[in-house]
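Example 3.2
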Amino acid sequence: MGQRTLPAKVEKTSEDERIIVRSPAVGLYSHHPEPGSILTEGGRVGRLTILNRQYTLVLPPRVGGRVEKVAVDDKVTPVEYGEELLHLVRRGWEFPEEDRQEAEAAREFAPGGTHVVVSPTDGVFYRKPRPDAPPYVNVGDRVVQGQTLGLVEVMKCFNPIQYGGPGLPEEAEIVEICVEDGAEIKAGQPLFRVRE
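Structure, written as tokens:
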């Protein structure tokens, strides 16, 4: 049986540039994204265990941003309803409407039985954390939600591209890497093709 998803609670701050992600229930919170990660709508914000049942916490529709701060200290943290989990910065992450439509079209028309992981933003794509390091993933690797697939550089900030999001299976195999290391990419551009 696939893992259940649960939308996180979100609250916009008064200046509307930041979003506070809060727990939707009492439970044990774990698997939070790293600071600097870019999350889009439906993106995974961690795992919440409620009465021994695990739920993947996801962002609600039309919410996204870069993780500015993780509000919990431990890998597994007891949380209450409404407790702060993450702070997101909105500026510079949003898909323009035409890019959002292109990203949805790319996901919809992936060839037989595959799914597409798209870029969350414009920038430069890197497969490795450093020039002398091995790539994060290769064709044939199995990946799970929350796993780093590559980096996107935006204005000298290197942000992890993490596997997960709407329409993607909990675990998948990389069948194609669609862009070269160091290539310029656009928001919504296919980066990886995967299958269950």
